[in-house]
Write a structure and sequence with these properties.
heterodimer, A: mainly beta, seven-stranded mixed sheet, four-stranded antiparallel sheet, 13 strands, 0% helix, globular, B: mainly beta, 11 strands
Amino acid sequence: DIVMTQSPDSLAVSLGERATINCKSSQSILYSSNNKNYLAWYQQRPGQPPRLLIYWASTRESGVPDRFSGSGSGTDFTLTISSLQAEDVAVYYCHQYYSPPYTFGQGTKLEIK
Amino acid sequence: EVQLVESGGGLVQPGGSLRLSCAASGFTFSSYAMSWVRQAPGRGLEWVSAMSGSSSRTDYADSVKGRFTISRDNSKNTLYLQMNSLRAEDTAVYYCAKDGLSGRDLAYYLDYWGQGTLVTVSS
């Protein structure tokens, strides 16, 4: 099974500042035949279901603000929020869909400093 | 508008069974793989199972393999999860989620999620 490890577990950032969350997979999730990384990011606000933010490691879902961006390839990935807003307080999860069993990272809790 | 509405959760004793349903609307249900993802209280997300749109392929997490069965009725736009031999560690909110790509056998990223249904396994 592919293990997804996020860092840090929690993060406090001032409003307007940059937030960076990392995700590392235990094996490459880059599919060589199409050069796509099978990695998604989700946001889960308190009491809500998860919301898709990013897929294919760097493609922003429709309606997601452009302050959210994803990067990385192979085994190392990053979610960046360029200018933190109050509504970004949430837990963020990475997710590999390269091979079943599909797995999530343990989550990173993002708070306002 | 895509809508996913889960039902069937509740309190069940260890060793018991429960069947969850997920009623889908707002998209061509048969064209999309669907997944179940669960979240234990205060914990992270755990992928449970997925089924292709045609029902030709199913996948399960090791933690539920042999105990849970995913199925779907495309004529009713409904996804199911039959849960048998339930354990305390199966206590969680169970979400159904729609795949982001149509016409694929494997599950990909999940672009719509229901609100979830709570399953509590306790004596």
